[in-house]
Amino acid sequence: MIITLSWLKDHLNTSANLEKIIDKLTGIGLEVEGIKDSQGELSDFKIAKIVKTEKHPNADKLKLCEVSLGENKHIKVVCGAENARDGLISVYAPPGAIIPKTKMKLKIAKIRGIESRGMLCSESELNISNKSDGIIELNNRVKDIGKNFFKSKGEKSIDVSITPNRPDCLGVRGIARDLASAGLGKLSSVKKAKIKQIFSQPIKISIIKEKNQGCMSFGACYIKGIKNKESPKWLKEKIISLGLKPISAVVDITNYVMLDLNRPLHAYDADKIDKEIIVRNSKLGENFEALDGKNYQLKNNMCVISDRSGPLGLGGIIGGVRSETEFETNNILLESAYFFPNSVRKTSRILDIDTDAKYRFERGIDPNSIKEGLEAATNLIIKICGGQASKFSVAGKSSVKNRVIQIDNNRFKKIIGIPISSNESKKILNSLGFNIKISKKNFKIEVPSWRPDIYEDVDIVEELIRIKGFDKISLIHPERTRSKETLSFKQKLFHLSQRAVANKGYLEAVTWSFTDSRIDKQFAQGKKEIGIANPISSDLNVLRRSIYSNLIFYLKKNQDRGFPDISLFEIGPTFHGDKPGEQQTVLGALRSGVANRKSWDSKARNIDVFDVKADVIKTLIELGVEESDLTISNKTQDYYNPGRSGCINLKSINGTQLAFFGEIHPAIVSNIDLKEQNVCGFEIFIKNIPEPTKKRRLIKKNYLVSEFQKSERDFSFVIDKNYKAGDVERLINDVDKDLIQKVLIFDVFEGESVPEGMKSIAVNVTIQSMNKTLLEKDINEVSQKIINVIKSKTGGTIRS
Amino acid sequence: MVDLRELIQKVSQAKDKSELQILKTQFLGKNSQINQEFKKLGALTEDERKAKATSLNNEKKKITEAINYRLKELEKSEINKKLQNDKVDITLPARERPNGKIHPVSQVIDEISSIFSEIGFSVAEGPDVETEYNNFTALNTPENHPARDMHDTFYLHGNKKILLRTHTSPVQIRAMLDGKPPFKIIVPGRTYRCDSDQTHAPMFHQLEGLHIDKDITMGHLKGCLDYFVKEFFEVKKIQMRFRPSHFPFTEPSAEVDIGYRLENGRIIVGEGDKWLEILGCGMVHPNVLKNAKVDPKKFQGFAFGMGIDRLAMLKYGINDLRSFFEADFRWLNYFGFDPLDVPTSYRGLSR
Hints:
heterodimer; A: alpha+beta; Phenylalanyl-tRNA Synthetase, Chain B, domain 1; CATH 2.40.50.140; Phenylalanyl-tRNA Synthetase, Chain B, domain 3; 7-stranded mixed sheet; 6-stranded mixed sheet; 43 strands; about 25% helix; B: alpha+beta; BirA Bifunctional Protein, domain 2; two-stranded antiparallel sheet; 11 helices; 10 strands; rod-shaped
């Protein structure tokens, strides 16, 4: 809502200056979003002289004008006006200026290949008149070249942000009332105009009683014999000052009353109404041409104002072309009605129409302002356009009873924390238009009809503190106590895993929860796609089913920027259904590129599955999982390279799934067109990390170390290559759990001297007893057992 | 008699360890003069023998000392000689050790959680996909309420029953339905609005706060936020202004501005002639409590909501909201935090 100081002063007797008013507005919840010269953008328009015109080289009807703003400022402008000629003084609009008629912002443009910096304007473009043939001619203003075309009156306009609960402040008077209540002046009383009303309103108006009827009441006045015209200057200026466009006196007056009193009105050309007005629900498929120039196909149950031929307007939203007033209009029917917010809102949403009337009705205007609106507008119309007014007619409910709220005397203090006196409460509420009866225990408060937002006692409390001022509330310092743990186990894991992975060289990314379905489906593992009905763009159209979907996209972007060796991770939700809760927290990490790229002392090598394996295992251990509980298998997902990826389960191969890791499937890497082809990653499923029954630090086992000599033995087996290193490791570990302390595989190879289908695998085994020094004999015994077990279980033989 | 002086001089002039070894054999070995002297002791009288033995032992000791001394000297000079030739170009690049970083949003969530933890708030969570009921209706924003216009909502289906939460406030409802009062929670999380331009992202982060008990007033709300803002921005003095506003789920409602000034184009929070809106808050509307099965006659309290990304931008001088979500290596490296930089209350939020 834009207001000007002078308009505000029509309703508010105040000596406060602009700054004070702005402060107060913000202080009482009518936030000031901006202040500008009421002329605002109009100060861009300068008086200028065409120094020289030439024909446009590429267009017969266009001219190339050299425009002077005085001194040495010469500007080249392309102009199509016939009257553009050497020496003409006209109005120039620079790039950046907003053309009042079209509201378009000018840009430096190339017109048929020639750059044009701004334009020369016609009267119509500046909303001065309808004259659109040719640019403005100002031949007597040689002295003013370079000066502003529009005179600034020094008037400021204030842009106030009105919250949806305050429709009453969508009129200047409502804002004035709030300011008066807050002590910034006195609300002036409304002058009753005397209108001669000698005949009855001749057009029959009926509101059909039906379910979902959107209209509560329809007040009207018939004014005959008017002469519609352009509005007088004061009215035009007012309309422009609040950002609207003057049209004709009749329309401008209805707009003026709307902006002044928050009372939307509509004027029909009465001669165009087919016999009578019927307010009814629309029928499916009815057609209606609205004043915005669009044709609307109506659905069932929209509130239409119709005559016998069909819809004339959508109640509370927009009028129609068929009954539009024109300069030639002689007789009008003025409508002042109340439409239910729900009805207006539903209809306008379905048809996607936004108008000033709709904006007000859907928030709720004063149902008891029907006559007030008719009076104000009729008075002005007769003054400006002449004519004779009928008596007012009202179909439907003529007024609504005001709500009464009871509020306990202590309620204010209980909620706000500080007391307020009865006197102060009374003063504030009265000044806002409430009637109040005070008794010992409570207040009985009658809510004015223009305040649809006040329903119960807390609403009254808000009104009181709003006007009294939030700065009056004394603050109570919080106590530094804690009765509950701040984070749950899973929440701690979230933060811990973040830092654990970052500590391994990964950069944390935060990406959208939605993603491109074309990428997502490659990681979806057959899960159902979760589409967004109204995505922000077609490449962010589904909820991500995998943490990789966005991560790999951004990995590519970074590669494309010239950063091939990169490690990214994200921890966040992935979705497996479209219901609340069908999501889980996953930590996903991706690495690509080369380790030791361009190193003076280490050999460069591709990042591979064993890099991410190290990262994921270390992370899981840091999250509290016992290393010995990590069971690794190759049961992975489709989006990994099947031969170079793994799955980590808890305790056994079928245990809880903790993580996947591996190289991303080469087909996906090539689909996404990653420059650096080796991309590896891991995913950790936070919900599957087991929660220990006791705190980690409290469940350390007894500290047991052996003080006896330890021995190491190396073995080299040749075994069938289908046996995994992990199998060999487990078999050896199981040989003697007391004596075998550690098994380390330190070499694996095929080919060379190793027979086809076999591989050589070298193992280092640490043997140590907790209670004695082992003799050579004991160690040899264990070694022999190891050799035997490998032989019997795998057929593998020891290499000599 | 051994010429002790001569021997010691020879030892001290030994050129290297092998020469020293030869000298050692020569002076102290089986065939050394001193050894010969020892052998002769048997032929002497007891008194003579004693005196001679003592003097021989003394001589032997002195020679040994001289040899050991020379040995140390030689070793030292050998090391020094080796070091002379053992020099690397220390300005060569170190081996690479990649640096990971924590995203500013995560860091700020940690900071905020630490601050509110001190005054007894615990962290609650809720799903990103929500029902229209929890996101709006239960929060006193019925269908066709104009306040719904302020939230450009992503829906999962045409029927608009399931959506991506537009704020973290539905977690209030979940938390209250899930437990019994009192409630004292903060809720950091992802929120979504289908709005995208320079200053709006379709996904952003909010922090919800809720404190419900028997006598929680607006005074407590003010105190809580005053504490938070000072701790978060790590300044002792900060101007703060509560402005009346409107949210359907609180009554009274307020927006909170903090004072700032501009220095070289950077926002300095604290005192100054400008105001910056940082959060919305208010006393929880009785209808919300009713919808969450909390008796508004017995319990009352406050709620607040703030943009985490915006707080991060303000505190750490980040200009562009969209850059938060673009995973640009350079940006993450620059604005990200070291993983060891864990905000805590006792060590301080920032290192």
